[in-house]
Design goal:
This protein is of the alpha/beta class. Among the domains are: 2-102, NADH:ubiquinone oxidoreductase Nqo5 subunit (Beta Polymerase, domain 2, 2-Layer Sandwich); 173-207, no CATH class. The protein has helices at residues 2-13, 39-48, 109-120, 200-206; strands spanning 18-25, 28-33, 56-64, 72-80, 85-93, 99-100, 124-125, 154-159, 164-169. The strands form three sheets. The protein has a five-stranded mixed sheet. Strand 6, helix 3 and strand 7 (124-125) form a beta-alpha-beta unit. The longest helix has 12 residues, at 2-13. The radius of gyration is 25 Å and the shape is elongated. The termini are far apart.
Length: 207
């Protein structure tokens, strides 16, 4: 009953901005909003209304869909320790669109918003300290985006001559291009299935 009351309250308080709502599980309410600038007002209402009391932010994560027009989907998971049910609020966001910070409502959103900015590039305005939290200073790009290469763009190594840690463009050694998982200590520039001298099948094919 409490979940249906919450859904009824949200749907009638924001009738033009809620385009999806329902119960995913008996104690999990889900609804989506259209305008990103309403997330702060909606979460403030969910926290202060007496029969909701969703006063704990459990998680904030981003889903990247680079082929969609609205690339990012932000998901807010809030919990009530009084009524013992949760609500997931999600919205879609363009790549270069910012979203208001909810740090003034939930103090735990400070690090979560910094993490989403650092990994996905979702900008939260009015954040008191939106610095990278996981990547190194001077790191270029957002590593959790699906169009970011797994190898990255730069590498870090210790230069014996200079006695310093240097950042330089990434270079992949071709000698490690073929890796033998059964015997990793055997490294060869030419794999066995391409070596004509070791593979009799390729010898017959070449003839």
């Amino acid at each position: 009953m409490k979940e249906l009351n919450a859904l009824y309250f949200v749907a009638h308080t924001f009738p033009r901005h809620i385009y999806f709502g329902g119960l995913r599980q008996p104690n999990l309410l889900e609804f989506a909003i259209q305008q990103s600038n309403l997330i702060k007002v909606l979460l403030q209402a969910c926290k202060t209304v007496s029969f909701l009391t969703l006063h704990a932010l459990l998680d904030l994560w981003t889903v990247d869909r680079p082929h969609n027009k609205q690339r990012f989907q932000l998901n807010y998971l809030v919990n009530s320790y009084v009524t013992v049910f949760r609500a997931r609020i999600f919205l879609k966001l363009f790549e270069y669109k910012s979203i208001p910070s909810i740090e003034s409502i939930f103090k735990g959103a400070n690090w979560l918003e910094r993490e989403n900015w650092d990994m996905f590039g979702v900008f939260f305005y009015d954040h008191p300290d939106l610095r990278p939290i996981l990547s190194d200073y001077g790191f270029g790009g957002f590593p959790m985006r699906k169009d970011f290469p797994p190898t990255g763009f730069s590498q870090v190594r210790f230069d014996d001559a200079a006695g310093l840690i240097v950042h330089e463009p990434l270079t992949l050694q071709q000698i490690f291009r073929y890796f033998y998982f059964s015997a990793p200590w055997l490294v060869s520039s030419t794999p066995k299935y391409l070596d004509v001298e070791r593979n009799p099948r390729r010898q017959t094919q070449n003839k």
